[in-house]
Amino acid sequence: MIKFKNTFHSLFILIMIGIFTSTLQASSLLIAKAGADINHTVTASNRAVHLVGTAIDPNNNIVKYEWFNGTKLIGPGASRWYVLTEDGTHTLTLKVTDADGNVATDTMVVNVNHQGVTQTGTLTANAGADITHNVTASNRQIHLNGTATVGSSPIVKQEWFKDGVKVWNGSSAWYTLVTPGDYNFEFRVTAKDGSVASDTMIVTVINELGNRQTSLTANAGADINHIVTPSNSAIHLVGTAIDPNNNIVKYEWFNGTTLIGTGASRWYVITQPGAHTLTLKVTDADGNVATDTMVVNVIPTPA
Fold it and tell me: In this structure, which of 4, 37, 165, 228 has its CB flanked by the most CB atoms within 10 Å?
């Protein structure tokens, strides 16, 4: 009887080991399929390739599909579109992971070439001719319209800079410029291979309206005493301004030199006991500025 129990126990262990081994073997049969290699001809209307990955998993518990271009993650999902425009051979990898942590990968090769794109080998940018901008009530913007020629690598970025500061992404934009003076605009293009080309234009602004604008005024409001309580920690700032040309573009509030917010009307939490000088700064579209101050005496809750 004892011998039969020992034999049954040994048989049970062998069966469990077999089931566990079979499970491991089944998991090890996870297979990823990225798809066949393809030739991708880039045109104006055909810039992306359709990636369709599949997998075989005996346990049917796949939890993640991921695509890589080299070591760079393209994105998740078995099926996705991927913009690929740089000429040459690209190896894309599909990585599949199941719920047990098993991983399988497969690669596909995409051969990219361009059609109908002149490969001059020289990337160029053109910001346009210098202009004189006469500001009127109905003409306050200039049109930035840059052009470029594609070199041996496709263009991936187009940017505009004013006096060294970036003001726009893209080749075309409208830009408000009304303060008299000369401004240097740079149009810069960057190619996929990292090469850069740029061109500049000078905008000379003449604004007779701005020269006549001398009566802009700001009003921060009267000084106040602010008694702080648990339900009363913020004050309501209400600024006003007078502008004969009715073209105010910005209201800003400062506590000392610290910007505390924008807008003519806003709430501001202030609880530090003492006198605080708040400044309202108003700017119009011609670049004129007016300021006014108010004093807030903060009084803590009486003991």
Answer: 228
Q: What is the DSSP string of 113-148?
A: EESS----S--EEE----EEEE-BTTB-EEEEE-EE
Residues 119-156: tens digit of each pLDDT: 456 889 999 999 999 888 778 789 999 999 988 889 99
- Specify whether domain 124-211 bears CATH 3.50.50.60: no
Interval 73-82: pLDDT, tens: 887 888 888 8
Helix (H, G, I), strand (E, B) or coil at 25: helix
Mean pLDDT of the residues in the chain: 83
Q: Residue 83 pairs with which residues in a beta bridge?
A: 48
Amino acid at 245: N
CA 224 to chain centre: 42
User: Helix, strand, or coil here: 167?
Assistant: strand
Q: Position 110: which residue type?
A: V
Strands 131-134 and 196-206: parallel
